[in-house]
Amino acid sequence: AETIILPGVGHFKDAMSEIKRLNLNAILAKNTDKKMIGICLGMQLMYEHSDEGDASGLGFIPGNISRIQTEYPVPHLGWNNLVSKHPMLNQDVYFVHSYQAPMSENVIAYAQYGADIPAIVQFNNYIGIQFHPEKSGTYGLQILRQAIQGGFIND
Prior knowledge:
By secondary structure, the chain is an alpha/beta fold. Helix content is 22%, strand content 35%.
């Protein structure tokens, strides 16, 4: 495979336990030359650690996943607009999550939800998409296609 897609909905610690039980962490670690796209929990699993269950992640992207800190209701649920310098990333997409990646130089797009919430990150050949492209209509599928074909850096 040229691209590995790591989907996910659920709890970070439980997901990592299952990944380790199936030895998928070792398989993924042997394929670091491949493009990997993590969606929702899949994005969070690519980070080093999560406060959700105080668990180690796959460690492909530096940083810690933490609970969303906002005056708005958590989980962050529903449609929200992407903010980005990338010309493609400026429409509404569908979110369902209570934890977030850190704001960093790896953030390509974010949503504003009382705080800046990373929505798309890219670090080397790893792309994380916090929202659900499959629930975001044609636009979400265009974003997923762009992630698979080339990513969002140096377009």
